[in-house]
From TrEMBL:
Belongs to the annexin family. Pfam families: Annexin. May associate with CD21. May regulate the release of Ca(2+) from intracellular stores. This is Annexin. InterPro entries: Annexin, Annexin_repeat, Annexin_repeat_CS, Annexin_sf, ANX6. Gene3D superfamilies: Annexin. GO terms for molecular function: calcium ion binding; calcium-dependent phospholipid binding; phosphatidylserine binding. It is found in: Cytoplasm; Melanosome. GO terms for biological process: apoptotic signaling pathway; calcium ion transport; mitochondrial calcium ion homeostasis; negative regulation of sequestering of calcium ion. A pair of annexin repeats may form one binding site for calcium and phospholipid. One of its GO terms (cellular component) is melanosome. Keywords: Annexin, Calcium, Calcium/phospholipid-binding, Cytoplasm, Repeat.
Amino acid sequence: HVSPAQHETRGTISDAADFDPTADAETLYNAMKGIGSDKEAILDLVTARSNAQRQEIIGAYKCSFGKDLIEDLKYELTGKFERLIVSLMRTPAYLDAKEIHDAVKGVGTNERCLIEILASRDNKQTQDMVAAYKDAYGRDMEEDIITDTSGHFKKMLVVLIQGTRDESGVVDADLVQQDAQDLYEAGEAQWGTDEAKFIMILGNRSVTHLRMVFDEYEKVAEMSIEDSIKNELSGDFERLMLAVVQCIRSVPMFFAKRLYKAMKGLGTADNTLIRIMISRSEIDMLDIRECFRLRYEKSLYNMIKDDTSGDYKRTLLNLCGGDDDLAGEFFPEAAQIAYKMWELSAMTKVQLRPTIRPASDFDPAADAQALRKAMKGFGTDEDTIIDIVTQRSNAQRQEIRQTFKSLLGRNLMKDLKSELSKNLERLIIGLMMTPAEFDAKMMKKAIEGAGTDEHALIEILVTRSNEEIQAMNSAYQSAYNTSLEEDIQSDTSGHFCRILVSLVQGAREEGQADLERADADAQELANACNGESDDMEMKFMSILCTRSFPHLRRVFQEFVRHTNKDIEQIIKKEMSGDVKHAFYAIVRSVKNQPSYFADRLYKAIKGLGTDDRALIRIMVSRSEIDLFNIRKEFKEAHDVSLHEFIQVETMIVSPSPCLLTLFCAYVLFSSLCFWTFFRVAFDSHSEHATAHSSSAAVVGYGNL
């Protein structure tokens, strides 16, 4: 691990040689003299000086011209560019103090700003900030934060404000074990959570000590400390504790994630972008750039370039300090983090959590009668259909299908198809099928017609177990009188076809990693990267399509050690088209399958039009497996709940919310917590809407 002392030389801004504060003051004065201002001269000078040198320039400016440089800059500049330049002229402590003050003043609190600053600063930075706050505002920072926050969130902030974390670097092995055990007993091992224990340990122990505690915790709890925090805590307190853990593991990676979230999606969180780019420019910006590239396969420089404009962009790019070659080798810090990420993935046993569970007091005959009544006569009682189908497990729905036929002599699937339309019909029918029937149908839909939905083929074949793939093959043969393998071969070609055929065998190895073989596999992949493109793809296929997921985690970890590169970057850089997408999906699924599905959902919903088929496919197929985990990953990646995101995005696409939103709200949160009911009116997307298409659906969701 890189020590804080080493980070001091990892900035992009340093002292300028042959520095003359008086000459610089004059340059700035001339740049602001007369009508208009020479913004380019201002930004070039300010970003080429260290913060200490800028303070000297402020003093020289006042001596030479009897004016306040910051006030002149505020007067001459405007908008985001003004905010950026003025912030660069403040000392780090006063900039942090101002950010905290802005976060707590007025109506509402910017909790994310408080979390970012207080979780990431060392003792000296925190103490200097507290003193600057007192000097600038004549108020006590701790008192202002206590007034503006509450609960455990407030208590942890107060602990962090003290700036008294142990920085001795001395580690007591017995205390490491004790802390790991105490954290386990405070959370996972009991009903309810002892938040005070989390606060005491995470708020006071040294960075080196806590890194060892986190490793020990994984052995005790069989999950990462992050997963436990997500399970045990909630709201701002959860976000704060996760931020503290991330900063203990790697401050640069924490800021890389913050920067990405500040720029992705619609609009840019400019205050966050400005604050981080300035505060880290002399500390660890080079490491942040490397972590950014490692995690997002895109350089920070290019993301800023694409997301900002004008003098504001030029200033930020100067602070960033340069572009990074996409597949270049890691700095030691980033390579170490990449290796550790795979190690974490290999060690952590994720507890998969569904959102649909079997209904208690289940009565298939009563459900069959209720469904028949809902479809009898003029119009359809969609409320009842949605209510029954989304509150029963798949096994219970199969019982309802059978009982409907034996009791009423009718085919439930045919009745539902005749009564429902468009997305609601697709959704309900999908839920009523067995998982194997549903997967088979989704594969058929992806293959048939003019175009092929390669992403759907990849998603299904990469994420299903051997047993699920074999059941799907049987269901496909039964439904369509042809083999799925033959249809894939007819509809795809080349290496992509061979990858799919390999996966559709449902013969992936099972079991844990063989460490010696994993090292050999990693070496073979590394060697293949230096060969011909065809040979490389065949070698990747022979390993990625056949080895077990636990084994592949170790292979990808050792690949970093052999090459000083991450497997994801190699795939993105060296491969193309559907082959790239298939291998990338395998790597993402091996690393974190719920995160892969969260990403697939984001892409299905984002942009012009919603990919309803992908949305239905994932929500239906994962509802009894890991949809709760997917929801958590989505929230962490995009800072918005999946439920809210679907509602917002489908409202943008169409004046009437997509029917799927109703199901999403239901499935995401059903059976997990306190039930709330609300009615949502919706209209059919079809121009030939039947009378019942605008009826209301009762949708349940949990207050999570």
